[in-house]
Amino acid sequence: QVQLVESGGGLVQPGGSLRLSCVASGFTFSRYDMRWYRQAPGKERVLVASITSGGSTYYVDSVKGRFTISRDNAKNTMYLQMNSLKPEDTAVYSCYILGYWGRGTQVTVSS
Protein backbone atom coordinates (compact mmCIF):
# COMPACT_ATOMS: atom_id res chain seq x y z
CA GLN A 1 0.00 0.00 0.00
CA VAL A 2 0.99 3.63 -0.38
CA GLN A 3 3.11 4.98 2.47
CA LEU A 4 4.46 8.49 2.87
CA VAL A 5 6.89 9.37 5.64
CA GLU A 6 7.93 12.96 6.26
CA SER A 7 10.98 14.13 8.19
CA GLY A 8 13.16 17.17 8.67
CA GLY A 9 10.93 19.42 10.72
CA GLY A 10 11.99 21.17 13.89
CA LEU A 11 12.40 24.46 15.71
CA VAL A 12 14.23 27.20 13.82
CA GLN A 13 14.72 30.92 14.32
CA PRO A 14 13.22 33.44 11.90
CA GLY A 15 15.42 33.70 8.84
CA GLY A 16 16.62 30.15 9.22
CA SER A 17 16.32 27.15 6.91
CA LEU A 18 15.02 23.61 6.98
CA ARG A 19 14.80 20.83 4.41
CA LEU A 20 11.83 18.51 4.59
CA SER A 21 11.82 15.05 3.04
CA CYS A 22 8.96 12.77 2.06
CA VAL A 23 9.91 9.16 1.39
CA ALA A 24 7.28 7.27 -0.60
CA SER A 25 6.61 3.59 -1.18
CA GLY A 26 3.91 1.36 -2.58
CA PHE A 27 3.60 2.93 -6.01
CA THR A 28 5.70 3.95 -9.02
CA PHE A 29 6.94 7.24 -7.63
CA SER A 30 8.27 8.70 -10.88
CA ARG A 31 4.90 8.58 -12.63
CA TYR A 32 2.96 10.88 -10.36
CA ASP A 33 2.65 14.51 -9.37
CA MET A 34 3.19 15.18 -5.67
CA ARG A 35 2.30 17.96 -3.27
CA TRP A 36 3.31 19.55 0.02
CA TYR A 37 0.56 20.93 2.25
CA ARG A 38 0.69 22.67 5.61
CA GLN A 39 -1.76 23.21 8.43
CA ALA A 40 -1.20 25.95 10.94
CA PRO A 41 -2.84 25.83 14.39
CA GLY A 42 -6.55 26.61 14.13
CA LYS A 43 -6.45 26.87 10.35
CA GLU A 44 -7.33 24.70 7.38
CA ARG A 45 -4.72 22.66 5.55
CA VAL A 46 -3.48 24.51 2.46
CA LEU A 47 -1.36 23.65 -0.56
CA VAL A 48 2.19 24.99 -0.34
CA ALA A 49 3.89 23.56 -3.42
CA SER A 50 3.57 20.84 -6.01
CA ILE A 51 5.79 19.10 -8.53
CA THR A 52 4.70 17.15 -11.58
CA SER A 53 6.17 13.89 -12.78
CA GLY A 54 8.06 15.94 -15.35
CA GLY A 55 9.47 18.33 -12.77
CA SER A 56 7.26 21.37 -13.29
CA THR A 57 6.62 23.21 -10.05
CA TYR A 58 3.97 25.39 -8.44
CA TYR A 59 4.20 27.54 -5.30
CA VAL A 60 1.63 29.43 -3.30
CA ASP A 61 2.43 33.16 -3.41
CA SER A 62 3.42 33.34 0.26
CA VAL A 63 6.42 31.01 -0.23
CA LYS A 64 7.60 31.99 -3.72
CA GLY A 65 11.29 32.81 -3.76
CA ARG A 66 11.84 31.18 -0.35
CA PHE A 67 10.81 27.53 -0.79
CA THR A 68 11.99 25.05 -3.41
CA ILE A 69 10.27 21.74 -4.12
CA SER A 70 12.21 18.94 -5.77
CA ARG A 71 12.19 15.20 -6.22
CA ASP A 72 14.67 12.36 -6.56
CA ASN A 73 12.95 9.54 -8.40
CA ALA A 74 15.84 7.16 -7.78
CA LYS A 75 15.29 7.56 -4.03
CA ASN A 76 11.47 7.79 -4.15
CA THR A 77 11.81 11.03 -2.23
CA MET A 78 10.35 14.51 -2.50
CA TYR A 79 11.94 17.51 -0.78
CA LEU A 80 10.96 20.96 0.35
CA GLN A 81 13.86 23.33 0.92
CA MET A 82 12.62 26.19 3.08
CA ASN A 83 14.74 29.33 3.42
CA SER A 84 14.15 32.70 5.06
CA LEU A 85 11.59 31.13 7.34
CA LYS A 86 9.02 33.33 9.04
CA PRO A 87 6.88 32.74 12.14
CA GLU A 88 3.84 32.46 9.86
CA ASP A 89 5.42 29.38 8.28
CA THR A 90 4.83 27.51 11.53
CA ALA A 91 2.65 24.50 10.72
CA VAL A 92 2.51 20.76 10.30
CA TYR A 93 3.80 19.97 6.82
CA SER A 94 2.44 16.90 5.02
CA CYS A 95 3.02 15.28 1.67
CA TYR A 96 0.17 14.06 -0.51
CA ILE A 97 -0.29 11.73 -3.46
CA LEU A 98 -3.17 9.76 -4.91
CA GLY A 99 -5.45 10.50 -1.98
CA TYR A 100 -2.88 9.46 0.60
CA TRP A 101 -1.33 11.63 3.30
CA GLY A 102 1.74 11.27 5.41
CA ARG A 103 1.55 11.91 9.16
CA GLY A 104 3.32 15.20 8.79
CA THR A 105 6.31 16.91 10.35
CA GLN A 106 6.11 19.92 12.66
CA VAL A 107 7.89 23.11 11.66
CA THR A 108 8.10 25.83 14.29
CA VAL A 109 9.64 29.20 13.49
CA SER A 110 10.25 31.19 16.64
CA SER A 111 12.92 33.21 18.40
Give structural notes:
Strands 2, 4, 5, 6, 9, 10 and 11 form a 7-stranded mixed β-sheet that branches. A 4-stranded antiparallel β-sheet has the order 1-3-8-7, with no helix packed on it. 0% of the residues lie in helices and 51% in strands. With 111 residues, the chain is mainly beta. It has strands at 3-7, 10-12, 18-25, 34-39, 46-51, 57-59, 67-72, 77-82, 91-97, 100-101, 105-109.
Helices and strands, in order, run as EEEEEEEEEEE
Could you tell me the strand content as a percent range?
Answer: over 45%
| Integer-rounded radius of gyration | 13 Å
| Shape estimate | globular
**Helical percentage:** under 10%
Rounded to the nearest angstrom, the distance between the terminal CA atoms is 40 Å
Total of helices: 0
Structural class: mainly beta
Count of individual beta strands: 11
Q: Topology of this structure?
A:
Blueprint: E1 3-7, E2 10-12, E3 18-25, E4 34-39, E5 46-51, E6 57-59, E7 67-72, E8 77-82, E9 91-97, E10 100-101, E11 105-109
Parallel strand pairs: 2-11
Antiparallel strand pairs: 1-3, 3-8, 4-5, 4-9, 5-6, 7-8, 9-10, 9-11
